[in-house]
Amino acid sequence: MSVPKIAERHFNPYEALVDSTVTFLFALFIWYYNIKTLPAFSSRDAASGFSTTRLIKGLFLGIAVMFALACIQQYLLSHINFGPVMLMFEVRGILVNVMFYMFVHLLYQSSQNQQVGIELERTKAANLGAQYELLKQQVNPHFLFNSLNTLKYMVESGDAHSVDFILKLSDFYRFTLESRKMDLIKLSEELQILDAYIFLLKARFEEGIDLSIDIDKDQYQSFIPPFTLQLLIENCIKHNIVSLDRPLKIKLYSEDDSIVVENHLQLKRTPEASTGLGLENINQRYTHFIDKKVEIQLGETSFRIKLPIIHENRNN
C-alpha cells in the first residue's frame, strides 16, 4: 500500500529516518501489546480460540497510536501533505496490527497445545501413582492375614458361617479386581463392597464393631471413588480400640450434599504408625474430579469425614 506513495516522492535521508522510526515504534508497541493482552494459560480453558474482540480492540488502539505518531511525523516534516500521509500510515498500521496479532496468536496456540500435553502427562502420572497407592491400600497384607487367621479359627471350631465367610472374602477381592481400574463407581456398588468388608470384620471382631448406615436412597445413584468407604472404615479401626467391652461405633449417613463417616473416639494407647496416605489419596481423587476437598472434623468425642457427593452430571 505504501509503494505507490514512495514511488511518487524522492525521500531524503532525514525523511526516510523519520518514516522508518514511526513504523518501528508502532510495530514495537503493537508487538508488546499483543503479548501483554494474551490470556493466562488455564488447564480448565486450554483452548480459548481466536478472539475477535481482542483483535478489534487492538485495531482501534493501533489506529489511535498511529494517528499520534503521524502527528509527530507531521511536526517533524511539516512540508509533507498530511492527508495522504495519514491515510498511508493508518493502512500500514492496520496491516501491521493484523499480521502481528495472527503471528502472536499462532505462537500462543502452539504454546497452549504444549501446555495441554504437559498437563495431560502430569495427570496420567499422578493417576497411575494414585492407582498404585490405592491398590496397595485395597490389598492390605495385614487385612488378608487377619482374615485368613479368622477363617482358620472358624473352620477349626466348626463355625457354621465359615462358608459365608469364604464367599464374602471372595466377593471382596473380586470387587477389588473389578473396580481397581475404575475412577468412579455408583454409591450403591460401593455399599456392596462395604457390606462384604463389614461381614469380614464382624467375623473377626463380632460385636466389637457397630456400623449404622442411614443414607438417602436418592443418593445411591451418585458416584464415589472405589473403596473410599472401606478405606475410611479401616482407618477408624486402625486408630481406635475395638473390643466387646468397648464396641467401636461408626455412623455412615448423608448430610446435605455430602456423605459423612463418623466414629466415636476411643483412641489406642499406643497408636499405630500412620503415613496419612489413605486420607490424602481420597482427598486428591475428589479434588481431581469435582475440585472439592474432603472435610475432616476432629471433635472432643468424635471424628468426622465429609465426602462431597459426585452427581451424574459431573461434566463427563
Automatic annotation (TrEMBL):
It comes from the Bacteria. The keyword Transmembrane helix applies. One of its GO terms (molecular function) is kinase activity. Residues 130-207 form the Signal transduction histidine kinase internal region domain. The chain crosses the membrane at residues 16-35, 55-77, 89-108. Keywords: Kinase, Membrane, Transferase, Transmembrane, Transmembrane helix. InterPro entries: Bact_2-comp_sensor_kinase (IPR050640), Sig_transdc_His_kin_internal (IPR010559). Pfam families: His_kinase. This is Histidine kinase. It comes from Mucilaginibacter aquariorum. The lineage of its organism: Bacteria, Pseudomonadati, Bacteroidota, Sphingobacteriia, Sphingobacteriales.
